[in-house]
Each structure stands twice: as structure tokens, then as C-alpha cells.
User: What shape does this take?
Amino acid sequence: MLGVAASDFLIYVGAFTAAWLVGLFAIYAPGGLGVREALLVVILRGRIGTADALVIAAASRVIFTLVDIFVAVIGVLILRRSPKPGAYDRSVGGLSETGS
Assistant: This one.
């Protein structure tokens, strides 16, 4: 993956995992905001430099936020399509709207 050695790849995966877990348990920071990024920079700056580590941390926050929004929109669309309990479904010949 982009010329990264297997041993380095495991370090990067470990860095993201550790940062995500610390952000998860930082109950004072909503969504680990700032905590995850700070730890990611601390772990990665020795390998890729502080500036690049900051860019990676900011980009990962943006990507995670966009994925969260995308999943939420998909969830809303799915929930809006599901029938309400007790609603009449003509294709199945279900109950009337009064439940009788």
C-alpha cells in the first residue's frame, strides 16, 4: 500500500487503533475530538514528521466525520422506508389502520 513496508504498516494501524481507543474513552471530549488527533500526532511524528502527522490527523478526522454522516443518512433512509407498526399493508393484506 503506497510503498509502506509491512512492519511500518502495522505501526500505522496500531497508531490509529491506539488513538481511536484513547479518544473513545476520553469521556470529556465528544467523539474524542482533539484527543485522538493529538495522540496520533505524537505517535506518528517520529516516523513522518510533525507537519505530515498533523495533516494525517486532520484528514482522518474529516474522513471519519464524513463516514459517520453517510451512515446516519443511510440509516434515516432505511428507517423512513420501513412500515410503521400496525400500518395497513395492501400487498400482504395486513391489518386495517384501526388494528381490526
